[in-house]
Amino acid sequence: MRIAEINDKNKWEKFLAENSPHSLFSSWSWGEVSSRIYSREKADFKRLAFIDRDLEGIFQVQKIHARRGSFLHIRHGPVLKTWKKEYFELLQAYLIERARELGAVFIRISPLIENSPENRLIIESAGFTASPVHRMDGEVCWVLDLSADEDRLLAGMRKTTRYLIKNAAKAGVVIQKSADKKNLESFQKLYNLTAQRQGFIRHRGIEEEFEQFAKDGQIMIFEGFFQNILLSSAMILFYNHQAIYHHSASIPSKAPVNYLLQWEVIKEAKRRGKSVYNFWGIAPDGLDRHPWKNLTLFKKGFGGEQVNYLHAHDYPVSKLGYRFNYLVEYFRKIYKGY
Q1: How far is CA 42 from CA 30, 39, 45, 47, in A?
Q2: Quick one: residue 196, left, alpha or beta (phi over 0 = left, psi -120 to 50 = alpha)?
Q3: Which domains does the chain have, with CATH numbers?
Q4: 14 Cβ contact list (under 8 Å, min separation 6)
Q5: Would you call the peptide bond into 252 cis, given omega within 30 degrees of 0 as the criterion?
Q6: CA torsion, points 278, 284, 288, 290, in degrees to nearest 10?
Q7: Tens digit of pLDDT for each residue in 63-115?
Q8: Is the pTM value of this prediction over 0.90?
Q9: Measured between alpha carbons, how far is 23 from 112 in angstroms, rounded to an integer?
Q10: I need a surface site. Which of 131, 133, 240, 323 has the fewest CB within 10 A?
Q11: β-strands 2-5, 45-51 pairing
Q12: 122-145: per-residue pLDDT in tens?
């Protein structure tokens, strides 16, 4: 068993589709996006594979520069055929050596695997501990099964949600969808306004994300208008078996634009043959101050179920440096209500 670089996109995507098709941030395209986002920082990026007699696993590792301490990050990975202790020990040894070469304070992994005692034991017995950051990257998400027909999907929604979808259409709400980059500018303007109003930090690389996934026809922008005014916009990814509600922006309005927009996304996902619509992250149960509380209520109204994946885990390479990072991220999470 060895770790080696891999440069075959088709082989990479085939392995991912067979072993973890929901792992967006392990996709080849996301690797391209990540490389572009951090290119100005000259951040180290590698696309690697576990090789035995065959391909046994894949992962993308990126060095992230941060004032609280640089770290190596594997988002939605590693992806393995089988989670075995010896595979993870090989990965750990490689990452520790790489972190020391690059001066990284710690290593962070966030594989989309079941949050089971067995999986936690493999990771935590190797010295990894639960990360102090909030549950990001779709660890706790809301997912809608799209196998039912449209009538049954509507019937499975909250009564209020179903009413608002129908009311929006009657009131003259118009939903437009496009994969044209010209719509990205309108989205960005609305997104900036939303970030200012709600006080969150904008995601980096939205333009890079759109351009990369557009190459394979895997992204669309949905726009909601009422009385010819753009009130809502969403960037939807169509990757492997799922549609993903990845970015959104809106202006507060009494018109139920967002509800009809989501219904149009669901219908587009079914048209493309997707099996699930991933509404992405929601607030974990019991956190009344969570910033996503209202958004979670909105998402759950469309029917579906909650899916929980293993929380991100960290391995300290420099214990003193990691202690500082831990405190910064922990108190930031508490302050923001996560």
Answers
A1: 17, 5, 9, 16
A2: alpha
A3: 2-134+310-336 (3.40.630.30), 140-308 (3.40.630.30)
A4: none
A5: no
A6: -60
A7: 998 878 899 999 999 999 988 888 888 999 999 999 999 999 999 999 999 88
A8: yes
A9: 6
A10: 323
A11: antiparallel
A12: 899 999 999 998 888 889 999 999
How far is residue 150's CA from residue 200's CA, in Å, rounded to a whole number?
35
Q: pLDDT tens, 160-199? A: 999 999 999 999 999 999 999 999 999 999 999 888 887 7
Q: Kindly report the backbone phi and psi dihedral angles of residue 131, in degrees, each rounded to the nearest multiple of 5, phi listed first.
A: -70, 150
Neighbours of 63 (CB within 10 A): 21
Q: Indicate the SS3 state at residue 79.
A: strand
Integer Cα distance of 77 and 15 in angstroms: 13
Q: How far apart are CA 327 and CA 333, in angstroms?
A: 10
> Which single residue is written with the structure tokens 């509800």?
259
